[in-house]
Amino acid sequence: MPLCEMCGKDERLVLAEIEGGELNVCSNCVKYGTVKKKVELKQFRSGFQQRPTPDRPQYKIVSNYAVLIRGSREKKGMKQEEFAKFLNERESIVSKWEQGHLIPRIDVARRIGKILGINLVELETEGEKVEVKKGKSNEFTLGDFVKMRKRK
Predict the structure, then answer these.
(1) Fewer C-beta within 10 Å: the chain N or C terminus?
(2) Does 118 map to a domain?
């Protein structure tokens, strides 16, 4: 399940307008704003993944994707700028992929693989499980800020 953008709880989300911005928040944090609509998210771009289904295999990006992308691009004699235009992506995104700061989505990784002649996607084996953090983290969230602001 996705995490609340204010408090970080792992719960069903609601799209709400809070202090002029639209946020996906849990049922507890919705009291700080007005409800726009219930959110039905199937695939998330900011680190969340689709729920695994038993009949559909799960794929993941190989761990050394950054080295593979950069090496293959340089072998082909392409500059980052050319490669980014070819993929219809920003040059900064390609740079972050090559530095390992950003993981490409599965569909984009497949396109990159076809262009460069490499394999960036592999089948996730059952032995490997994605660890999901639950509970309170020691990070300061927007919800913490709102609570502190109300107390004063």
Answers:
(1) C
(2) yes
- Domain membership of residue 104 as a residue range: 59-123
CATH number at residue 78: 1.10.260.40
The answer to whether residue 138 sits within a structural domain is no
Q: HSE of 22 in the Cβ direction (CA atoms, 13 Å)? A: 7
State how far the alpha carbon of 123 is from the alpha carbons of 85, 90, 109, 130, 136, in Å: 29, 28, 13, 13, 32
Model-level pTM?
0.49
Q: Is residue 89 part of a domain?
A: yes
- Secondary structure letter of residue 95 according to DSSP: H
Residues 6-41 have pLDDT tens digits of 888 877 888 888 888 888 888 888 888 888 766 554
